[in-house]
Amino acid sequence: MNKHQILIVEDDIMVSNLMATTLEMGGYVYRTAKNGSEAIMEALSYKPDIMLLDLGLPDMSGVDIIRKVREWSNMPIIVVSARVETSDKVSALDAGADDYLTKPFSVDELLARIRVALRRVDADREKASAATSIYENGSLRIDYAAGCTYMDGKEIHLTPMEYKLLCLLAKNTGKVLSYNYILKEIWGGVNESDMASLRVFMTVLRRKIEGSSVDDTRYIQTHVGIGYRMLSHNS
Ligand code: CA
């Protein structure tokens, strides 16, 4: 299972250690940052699923960190801060923090907030992967999850090998794929007999995809002596 990664941003070693221990017990993996610049760097390179953020850091205000991170990421940010003033809480939430926990916090409370944030992360990811599981290019549509191919809304029946070839081309739409590249990806190596098979499979696949208009290629372009390319019809 892919473990969720959490970034702890906290300059108080005692609090940071308590959080680290809590996360370890909860089965999470984590990294720590003890100031704002480290936090930004770790947020970029470690790509955590969640950030736990102290507002009072030596070099930067936590609110500025939230603003910076929000320029490129919508990862949940849970502010964990000793400040109880409502104004701090409001400016952190305004800047894009998702949740706010006041120190001293209970370990159970911290874990509960993390679970809530992670449910959001997982739900977002599921949505994103559902969106990327459909390929659309002009009238050609591939439903990767179902393993089905459609042209103008009508299902095209492909053999497993034709389907594999089509997916490979689709995933590299716009790029010319060399014979060798295709052979390595589909057959796992380059040899003469597979080369002959590739030509046969591609001829049949193109006939199924292009219909009667093989002469005027709309989707799968042949580059003689080089390879094949899926043309893009999406602007
Ligand atoms: Ca602090």
Strand element count = 12
**Strands ordered across the widest β-sheet:** 2-1-3-4-5
Spatial extent as radius of gyration = 26 Å
Bound molecules: calcium ion
What is the residue-mean pLDDT, rounded to a whole number? 91
**Shape, per Cα inertia axes:** elongated
Give the terminus-to-terminus CA distance. 38 Å
Largest sheet: 5 strands, parallel
CATH superfamily of the largest domain: Response regulator
Instruction: Indicate how many domains the architecture comprises.
Output: 2
Architecture (CATH level 2) name of the largest domain:
3-Layer(aba) Sandwich
Please write the CATH class name of the largest domain.
Alpha Beta
Number of helices: 8
Textual characterization of the structure:
There is one protein chain. The chain has 235 residues and is an alpha/beta fold. The chain folds into two domains: 128 residues, 3-Layer(aba) Sandwich (Rossmann fold), CATH 3.40.50.2300; 97 residues, Arc Repressor Mutant, subunit A (Orthogonal Bundle), CATH 1.10.10. It contains eight helices and twelve strands. The strands form three sheets. It has a five-stranded parallel β-sheet with strand order 2-1-3-4-5, with helices on both faces. The protein has a four-stranded antiparallel β-sheet with strand order 6-7-8-9. Strand 3, helix 3 and strand 4 form a beta-alpha-beta unit. Helix 3 runs parallel beside helix 4 and helix 6 crosses helix 8. The longest helix has 26 residues. The protein is elongated. The site of calcium ion has 5 residues, from loops.
